[in-house]
């Protein structure tokens, strides 16, 4: 497998988030996934993800930019509450957030 093919495979895996089971669970609760919400909000094919392939980002937060009615917007979508809760716990445990 070439390096380009490996990169595309990794991107496809990242786009599945927690996997097909998690996507089906979201849909069974009549919810869209974070990527689906982004796609629904933005103009067609305008989303540019920032940091999506960096070191196994497991925070569940997707960040990037795109356009809405041809206006540039920056956004994030995902489990931000969970991420912030983990940060708060780390700050309480370490006393300084590191």
Please, could you describe this protein's structure?
Helices cover 46% and strands 18% of the residues. With 98 residues, the chain is of the alpha+beta class. The chain has one domain (3-94). It has a 3-stranded antiparallel beta sheet with strand order 1-2-3. A hairpin with a 2-residue loop joins strand 2 (61-68) and strand 3 (71-78). The mean pLDDT is 78.
Overall 3D shape: globular
Question: Total number of helical segments?
Answer: 4
Question: How large is the share of residues in beta strands?
Answer: 15-25%
Largest sheet: 3 strands, antiparallel
Q: How far apart are the termini?
A: 39 Å
In N-to-C order, the SSE pattern is HHHEEEH
Q: What class, by secondary structure content? A: alpha+beta
Q: Helix share of residues?
A: 40-55%
Tally of DSSP β-strands: 3
Question: What is the mean predicted local confidence, pLDDT?
Answer: 78
Radius of gyration: 16 Å
Parts with pLDDT < 50 across at least 5 consecutive residues: none
Number of domains: 1
């Amino acid at each position: 497998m070439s390096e380009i093919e490996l990169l595309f495979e990794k991107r496809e895996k990242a786009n599945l988030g927690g996997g097909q089971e998690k996507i089906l669970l979201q849909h069974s609760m009549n919810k869209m996934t974070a990527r689906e919400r982004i796609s629904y909000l933005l103009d067609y094919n305008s989303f540019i993800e920032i940091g999506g392939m960096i070191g196994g980002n497991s925070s569940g937060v997707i960040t990037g930019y795109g356009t809405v009615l041809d206006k540039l917007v920056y956004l994030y979508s995902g489990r931000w509450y969970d991420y912030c809760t983990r940060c708060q716990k780390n700050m309480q445990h370490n006393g300084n957030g590191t």
